[in-house]
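Aim 2, interim progress: modelling of the zinc ion-bound target.
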Amino acid sequence: MPIAVIGGTGFYKLLENTVPLQLRNEYGSVELMRGNYQGREVIFLPRHGKNHEFLAHEINYRANMKALQELGITRILATCAVGSLNPEIQAGDLVLIDQFVDFTSNRPKSFNKYSVDMSEPYCPQLRSCFLQAAKELDIDVRDRGTYICGNGPRYETRAEIKLFQQWGMDVIGMTNATEAVMARELGFCYAVVTIATNMAPGITAAPPDLATHRRVVQENRARLTQLLLKTITLVPEERHCDCRASYERALAARASQLKAGEGA
Ligand SMILES: [Zn+2]
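Predicted structure of the complex, ligand included:
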């Protein structure tokens, strides 16, 4: 079974025999790369497009996830960059987030067809693969964290950041809640390692700055890529989690609602 990786643009260069793929579905067209790593087929999806052409709210999350489903993907490993709201999380730190709060309103956020269980939004099996890989490589990964998903494209005000901190949020980004919801809605196993690239405004006096963000990503790219590649090798063929079953329960519940409605 192929594994999908969603992340920044550099990753696919480490795969073997890469070929570009272009898929079209009812939501739009998607550009991906297909390759191999240690005998395992890997599909790579550059989240923001091959040339970073899509801002967070412009990403066609539905087309992306549907394309992965059509390719027979069942597991997705993701990485994304975040700002830190927690002084214990410094620039360059890796955080395997376990919860999110969705604060977005400027994009399609769901396939809008049935209600899925999101109480544990990330796959426990893939999370433990990430942690095992980190342990084997001696890479520090914080194993919990709550992510708040902001609208973008603007950054937050100091008052917003203060509020999010009071709510107990650890990191902030603009993509992950949307991606995680749609992953669950299609029954994928999905987990994400985030990299903190800066402290959010209000925690630091420095304004958000793209050059710093790029530098931190660049400095940590090798570590993050190693972690991803190792994790790919540790994902077992069989799924021992509830991700697929919770999706099937959602489908069945919706079908039964519709049936009951028909009979009423
Ligand atoms: Zn799972």
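The chain has a mean pLDDT of 92. The longest strand covers residues 189-199.
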